[in-house]
Description:
Blueprint: H1 2-21, H2 33-63, H3 69-102, H4 105-139
Amino acid sequence: MLRELRVSQTGVQILTGFLLTLPLQQRFPELDTVQRNAYLGVLLGAVLAVSLLVAPVSYHRILFRQGAREWLVEAGDRAARAGLVALAVTISGVVWLVFDVVVGRVASSIAGPVALVFFSMLWWAVPMQANRRHAAQFST
């Protein structure tokens, strides 16, 4: 599990770092109230995603060779799943924010939800469908 998390950890850490630099940009003061609130929301989402995706590493470091393998696997899985949900929501929020700034509110109101549906399909529906097929194949 820790190897899998390295991929998502790197991406969410880069996203968080990028988001942290935005208020330092020249055009940041031009954002309206909705855009600033969206920015704060996606920043908090990115911090939450980083926290959840790094949590299994911390669990492992603290409890390594302490006989807590079952707890480590279960808690790590829960944290990783929650972290991926937070990441999907955050990236969708970033898509919404970028579209809102670049194209406008109507386009962002379409792009953000489309991104969230895309992540839901790719990260949840596809593996669930594969799991159903796999289970059906071995139950007959």
